[in-house]
Amino acid sequence: MLDTILSLGQIDSKYWLEDYWNKNGDPRIADYFLMSSFRPIIWIQLIYSIFVLHVGPKMMENRKPFSLKWTMITYNILMSCLNAYFVIFAIVLHNFALDMFDVKFPSFTDRSAHTERIFRLHYLFTISKLFDLLDTIFFILRKKNSQVTVLHFYHHFSVPFQAWSYFRLCGNSAIVIPFGLLNSLVHTIMYAYYGMAAFGPHMRKYLWWKRYLTQLQIVQFVCICIYLIYFIAKQQGYPRYFFYNLLFQSILYIFLFGKYYFTTYRKIKQ
Question: Is 155 in the active site?
């Protein structure tokens, strides 16, 4: 199916799905699960998209919503703890995050024990972006379809692709440190918020700070943009994809989160 779709656009599917990554990717992590080809991640995202945009809502149309209370509480607590783990070990393994200022593209010959630990951390972070997809699945099963906004869907659809491509092209590039650190910090707080909310309506009085979480999400991308401007000026040997794609995505997220914040909280004030 993927080959057929790509062939209709006159695209060499084997090259872009496999050969390109094997040729340009980091050979040190080529044997990691899901890293040898782009195909699995595309299939996962296609199945996710079909389910949340069509199959799921259709399946739930004449059914009562699932409660999933304890499933969601457990999921959110575990995801909050996992992201806290990323924050702590990103600081530990990246010299209090100061490694982000190492602007030279890493050598693929570095196979030290320290680098291997960084690989494992970055790989687990990459795979965790697939676990994030359960957010949307829970919305659909609870018939909270209005929660699946353009921002929500785009975020969950695009981030696994982005995380996979950056890890596959270089398992220990410094440019991903600010995003990984800030993203994990925000998700630690975000999943804690949703874990509290899952206990029920009586928790609402403790959840007045949701708007500040959205503000934090905007601030993280502003910080990443500032960092990328510095990085682009100083970088040595990085392929353009690394910084221009990340800069574009950050600017896009500032717009999307800004639009969401303005629309949501302007309505509340009115």
Answer: yes
